[in-house]
Write a structure and sequence with these properties.
alpha/beta, five-stranded mixed barrel, 13 helices, 30% helix, 22% strand, binds S-adenosyl-L-homocysteine, binds iron/sulfur cluster, binds FE3-S4 cluster
Length: 503
């Protein structure tokens, strides 16, 4: 617990603290309002990330545990956080009870994501009581919200450190402050910072790797918190992305996932060069790495040049995640997605014509404020028309500070649940029909590991990212094999190895 007696002056307000919640050392508190601003400031790229000498040994003999919630961007940020901690001498542990530093890298996308984090933070109280020297930190998208930080200050005094998505490179200094300070240390920059290259990373596994190509989002879909928690769109320089992919290829990685909230907007922020996502993929496809994927593509910026590059195939796999959100042009308008149902279907038609056997997946929100039965039926009919292999589906969750949170919502929760159920049923039926088409075919599969439910069975993925189970020896993990598909289920394929493939 924090020492309540040792009063210091609150750095933010300059006032002496009066309540327990005042006992925080604020370097900077979050503000969603400030996060909304999109300034013209130049984004600088820093190549000089280093850890101060006095912090290099601080974790020697100590352990850390990072728990990640949310999207792949967050997973990848956790790899950077782990990299920084290991350069400070910490070793990782899976067990929070053993850890000297525990960090929760959080997600703010829906209310239930946040509830989960608060539940786990509550559980940490007991662990902190048993181990008072433990440093408990909260980072990621939730820490960008002022209401979350106030709640932590008020009710979660077991937390020692809160830092934002733009402050990851500051972790060594912030950790030092948290270790030596009696107060909760809070540093959340609301405005995005510069791009910091060369931060260390501890990647999970040695087969698949994530590579950020851009940060932030400028789309401001009316339901979404991400543009506020991740700041404005900033693209990494092409030479830095390419150098990282080349390096991963040299290290023997087999698959790269390029990451951005809206990868199709890549390069739009460059002022000195005209260079877009299609150009980047056209260069990356020449690197000797067997599979390149990317996520997420916004339908609006998916241009013909990109389709043309993707149609070259090779290591650019025939799988595209193309979130539609709704099949109703009316709802799309209120979501500010800036495309119509017709535009989306036309894009799908072009993609299917250019890329044979392409596998499409999507994200869909049901129960957006004011969504009528008819508008929901439009979503169902779009799903039938596109025939997705897979979809993430959600019930709309209001996010404070976003425009949709202020829209009148007359759709009862029961109706939203019923819509989600019907949508998922349609998707499962179509998913099975799509998979059935693969029965009898031979697929190239990257062997990823042992199946979660049966240690005699291996699990791998096709180029289209479908999960395949088959019997095989663990020694082939990380390699490519050919698998004949004998049985298709709704979300998995089952088969038998026919030959090993050299890729
Ligand atoms: N940048 C990606 C999406 C990132 S968020 C894109 O635009 O495609 C992942 C998904 O979460 C979104 O596609 C959307 O379907 C869902 N989502 C975002 N905000 C939501 C909210 N307030 N309620 C429910 N689902 C939401
Ligand atoms: Fe959110 Fe829209 Fe940006 Fe995706 S494109 S992160 S849904 S605002
Ligand atoms: Fe969640 Fe932030 Fe990702 S809100 S979905 S972790 S960008």
């Amino acid at each position: 617990m924090k020492q309540v007696k040792e009063a210091t002056v609150d750095l933010k307000s300059g006032k002496s603290p009066k309540t327990t919640a005042d006992y925080a050392k604020y370097f900077q508190a979050p503000s969603l309002k400030d996060a909304k601003q999109r300034g013209k400031e130049e984004v600088r790229v820093h190549y000089d990330f280093t850890i101060a000498d006095d912090m290099k040994e601080i974790g020697k003999g100590k352990r850390y545990h990072v728990r990640t919630y949310g999207c792949q961007m967050n997973e990848h940020d956790s790899e950077t956080i782990s990299g920084i901690l290991e350069q400070m001498g910490y070793a990782s542990t899976d067990n929070v009870e053993d850890a000297d530093v525990v960090l929760f890298n959080t997600c703010a996308i829906r209310e239930n994501a946040e509830d989960k984090v608060f539940g786990e933070l509550g559980n940490m109280k007991r662990i902190k009581n048993n181990n008072p020297n433990l440093i408990l930190g909260v980072c990621g998208c939730m820490s960008q919200e002022e209401k979350v930080v106030s709640k932590i200050l008020k009710s979660y005094q077991q937390v020692d450190l809160v830092f934002g998505t733009h402050n990851i490179h500051r972790l060594p200094e912030l950790l030092r402050e948290a270790i030596y300070s009696k107060e909760m240390v809070i540093e959340v920059w609301s405005k995005e910072g510069d791009i910091v290259e060369n931060m260390p990373k501890i990647r999970e596994g040695n087969t698949k790797a994530w590579v950020n190509i851009m940060y932030g989002c400028d789309k401001f879909c009316t339901y979404c918190i991400v543009p506020y928690t991740r700041g404005k769109e900033r693209s990494r320089r092409p030479e830095d992305v390419i150098a990282e992919v080349r390096d991963l290829a040299r290290q023997g990685f087999k698959e790269i996932m390029l990451l951005g909230q809206n990868v199709n907007a890549y390069g739009k922020d460059f002022e000195d060069i005209t260079y877009g996502f299609g150009d980047l993929l056209d260069e990356i496809r020449k690197i000797d790495i067997p599979r390149i994927r990317f996520t997420t593509s916004h339908p609006r910026d998916f241009d013909d040049h990109l389709i043309e590059v993707l149609s070259k195939g090779g290591n650019l796999v025939e799988q595209i995640h193309l979130p539609v959100q709704s099949g109703s042009s009316e709802v799309l308008k209120r979501m500010a997605r800036k495309y119509s149902r017709e535009h989306y279907l036309e894009l799908v038609r072009k993609i299917k014509a250019a890329i044979p056997n392409v596998s499409l997946s999507t994200d869909i929100i049901v129960g957006f404020p004011g969504e009528t039965d008819e508008q929901f039926e439009d979503t169902l009919s779009l799903v039938e028309e596109v025939r997705y292999d897979f979809a993430y589906t959600f019930i709309y969750s209001p996010r404070e500070g976003t425009p949709a949170a202020g829209m009148e919502d007359n759709v009862p929760m029961e109706v939203k649940k019923e819509r989600l159920y019907r949508l998922n049923e349609a998707l499962a039926r179509i998913g099975l029909e799509q998979n059935k088409k693969l029965e009898g075919s031979v697929q190239e599969v990257l062997v990823e590991g042992v199946s979660k439910n049966n240690d005699k069975v291996l699990a791998g993925r096709t180029r289209t990212n479908k999960l395949v189970h088959f019997v095989g020896d663990e020694s082939i993990i990380g390699q490519y094999v050919h698998v004949r598909i004998d049985e298709a289920k709704t979300w998995t394929l089952h088969g038998e190895i026919v030959t090993k493939v050299e890729v």
